[in-house]
Write a structure and sequence with these properties.
It contains eight helices and 14 strands. It is an alpha+beta fold. Helix 7 links the parallel strand 12 and strand 13. The N terminus is likely disordered.
């Protein structure tokens, strides 16, 4: 049976205790049983509603002001497709008079870039597989709704962000008819995605300024190539001078017996396979630059990716995730 999403009107009819005014989210029914639910406190804000896919530089949005309500649900949905999750919700919105503005799947939305340019509640409340999600935004007068759905194993994940005027009181937190939801802190304001910025070299024991690369490699220690910058969500290394790569090339060129492995790392956002693949492509892109621009012999360098499996910082903060997205040079032992 469909699960009630927002029974606010029914609660009011029963004369339940009320808390401060909030927006009235659309009354939707979730298509699968709810295993867990998380809600952030409603707040009067401006929500950047995506109105088109990522265009290669920015995410086109329309700023909608009002009471913003954010909720995420984990559903018991073995075998469910993304359309099984999204279509019933979309149909309900259309039936309630909403006009669909954007309806796209992962790659068409913009993949990695779209995911990190729009607002997404933190894991474990909301999980997003970078290669397997759907997004929908819709408008009705001065109200707006965005839906984000994804999957992991036998679970479906649904995020609902709604914006509207302060029309209805909110049922008391102890209302037994509502799913139990923990308090949470409203997310940080979303900013356009930009290429990965260099991390402070002192942030980790493996980090090294370019001038220290040779000394660390000589000592058999891995080196984080902090000065690399990739196109966001891409394996393409941006044009520029990279002193760390020159240092690697000089170290390898000094002894033909030397070799190293370039290991790509990612944060934990999204699916494991997609992150491992992206991290490996970035490591291989660095290998190609070393060979083509710096004349390094291909036999001296290998490339691999481990995705999120070797974090150097927490994945619960933006800064920690930024530090985890990196390429390391690991010298091979010489006998």
């Amino acid at each position: 049976m469909p699960q009630p999403l927002v029974p606010a009107l029914a609660c009011l009819a029963l004369g339940l205790a009320l808390t401060p005014a909030r927006a009235a989210p659309p009354e939707l029914a979730l298509p699968y049983p709810v295993l867990s639910a998380t809600a952030l406190p409603a707040a009067h804000q401006a929500y950047p509603l995506p109105i088109a896919g990522f265009d290669g530089a920015t995410l086109p949005v329309e700023m909608i002001e009002g009471m913003v309500d954010r909720r995420a649900y984990r559903l018991d949905a073995p075998g469910a497709s993304l359309l099984d999750l999204m279509a019933p919700l979309r149909d309900q919105l259309v039936a309630e008079g909403y006009e669909v503005v954007l309806d796209c799947a992962a790659e068409a939305c913009g993949g990695f870039d779209f995911r990190f340019a729009t607002q997404v509640m933190d894991e474990p409340a909301m999980h997003v597989d970078l290669g397997d999600f759907r997004f929908l935004s819709a408008r009705k007068g001065d109200e707006a709704v965005s839906l984000l759905v994804s999957r992991a194993a036998d679970f479906g994940f649904v995020q609902v962000i709604s914006v509207g005027p302060e029309l209805l009181p909110r049922p008391a937190a102890d209302d037994p008819s509502l799913p139990a939801v923990p308090d949470a802190v409203p997310p940080e304001p979303v900013v356009p995605v930009s290429p990965i910025a260099p991390v402070d070299p002192t942030a980790t024991d493996n980090a090294a300024a370019p001038q220290d690369v040779v000394s660390r490699l000589d000592a058999g220690l891995p080196v984080v190539l902090e000065d690399l910058a990739f196109a966001s969500g891409s394996a393409a290394l941006l044009e520029g001078d990279y002193p760390s790569l020159q240092a690697l090339a000089d170290w390898l060129g000094a002894d033909a017996a030397r070799s190293l492995a370039l290991v790509g790392h990612s944060d934990a956002s999204g699916g494991l396979k997609a992150n491992v693949a992206l991290s490996e492509r970035r490591a291989e892109a660095v290998r190609q630059v070393l060979m083509q621009k710096f004349g390094v012999k291909g036999a001296q360098v290998t490339a691999a990716g481990v995705g999120p499996l070797a974090p150097r910082a927490t994945n619960l903060t933006d800064e920690g995730r930024r530090q985890n997205r990196r390429v390391e040079a690991v010298p091979a032992p010489t006998l």
